[in-house]
What does this fold into?
Amino acid sequence: MAPSSAQAPGPAAGPPAHPGAPLQGPGPGAARPVELPAAHDTLVCVALPALAVSPRHGQLTGTGLDGVFLGGRRLLARCVLRIAGREPVPLHGRTTAADRADFLGVLRTPGDTGPDPGLVVERTREADGTERITLRSSATRPLRLPVELALGTDLADLGAVAAGRPGPELAASVHGTGLRWTAGDGSAVAVAADPPPRESLAAAGLLRWEAVLAAGGSFVLTLRIRSERAGRAPGAGTDSRPGSGRTHGPGPGLGPGSGPGSGGGRPGGHVLADAVAEGDDPRLGPLLRSSLADLRALLQRDPAHPADVHLAAGVPWRCGPVTAEALWAARMALPLGTRLAVTTLRALARTQLRGPGPESGLIPGPLRDAGPHLPPRCTGIEATLAFPVVLAEAHRWGLPEPDLAELLPVAERCLDWLRRALDGGGFVPDPWPAGPARAETQAHAHRAALLGADLLDAGGWPGGDAWRERARALRARFRDRFWLDDPAGGRPALAHTADGRPLPQLGGWAAHLLDTGLAGAGRPAPGLLDKAQTERLARLLAAPGLDSGWGLRGLGEKEPGYNPFGHRSGTVRPHETAVAVAGLAAAGYEREAAALLRGMVDAADAFGHRLPEMFAGERRTPGAVPAPHPAACRPAAVAAAAGVQLLTALVGVRPDAPGRTVALHPLRSAPLGEVRLSGLRVAGEPFAARVGRLGLGMVEEAAPGLQLGV
It folds into this structure.
């Protein structure tokens, strides 16, 4: 089904700029496919709505994605440093925080007699474009060096930049201690320098200084960018997918120290708790720190409701409106507190379709590509089925009762839509009402039915038993229709087409069949598969066909259409691997869970502890490192949240805040040695737990009156 206008807002456009971007209808004015600029080797600094994309050498040349962006518009495209007429020799560039990158270069100074460089050049660039340039001299005599910055911008939208259609560079004018550029719509940007330049050449976009360095001394130069927006609120942005034409509004001032709920200078400090991981494996601490920093950097405000925040799906391509990915990420981040889940649910609730029509209760969402074997799927259905699940699990983690009461009617309407979808043919089609029945969608529907029943009971609403019966019937139908028998023990079908034909291709999507969620008393809900089928699936997930050694492939290595760089046909998506680890651990398959966990921690280490949205599913060999995907978002919400889920699955925290209990079910093989998690939130209070080298768990800090469950 082509989505209605409510499901896929925005004008018709061409194929998506990003593999996971919404698919728009072809339309008479459809844009032609564009090739995205590669982003895997860039350094991305994020504090939404601010974003800085830099090559590793640190010079912004205005090519590709280079630049400083605010709300989806490029404020600065070019910032090239020359000292004594030469560019520094780049040595390395790296991100040192989610919102900051450091660059190091050297330069031989006039009068150097040997090959050794006498000048070190350090640059620190922040997401909002603030840049500090430091020249350090090792010379034994004073130096007087001409320093020059070539600056320029086009004030182009990120979508146009990504499509390779940036505007012409604008003419500059001298402004204060720097330069200023003005676009045709009245928007303007100014760069101020400290100390003021000795000379400003607006026609060439040049600022010049004469740096005087004492023997062994230094010279420091600071640039700051100020934007003046016209025609839209400060901080409002656009979806960066070429042809989208849709706007989103992260809201003003959502940068470091001023992010949603920031406390004590920590962006998002009141939204996501300051959790800490410690243990025998030194990589666990950096993994959790990076995951938390990336989640905070991706926080956005709803401009019409500034108290509500949600996560952008990913940078640089997907900083648009709230999505199903934002909801999945909020679910995985529940150990860090329930506030992000609440505000994300509120943002989605405001989009829910109302009234008497057949779509009533559905949360709109665009279509996304689903790989080579299926038509695009509807992210609106995904969000509709996830809504009651996230609300129910947030209740288990300690959601305040007023929030539950506010959001429960929305969840009930989601369930009412699900009831009509199931009554139409026994399975949920995706897209609705005439798409294929996907196995992953049935897993989402089953989880929504079971946890929705608990949710209705918790709110004192009727219908819980009826939903448990629907879940039981769906389990029976799924086990009968979706399990394909073969001599090796069978496998789940990817989907049933509209004409009833099963598709046998196996991929990482199957991890969702093990994701049952937290039901009553913090216990896993009944599984969609029976015991024998679950055991067989556990073996399949652990086999080399699916497990690359770094994580689960989106499509099995031996399946037709496999492509190690295909975003739904072979790449490793950390979100799916984290779901598999948690599901396998809950089902008792610890060996398989531990193998996937170790592979994902190894992959995170190879990526500097910042997991990308996806990476190549090539088989792991001795001494190899995982290959990046050139179009992957990094940071990405579900990938960052996957780091949180991996560590909480390792410790096995199962809360039941309404029942005032919390249980620990750690991986008893202790695959990463001793581990301690602190700073989590259960029942609204700090929570800490330790798992020893023998796999025994111990609660070290918990809310008063919270009892240790079974």
In short: The chain has two domains: 43-237, 257-362+373-621+635-708.
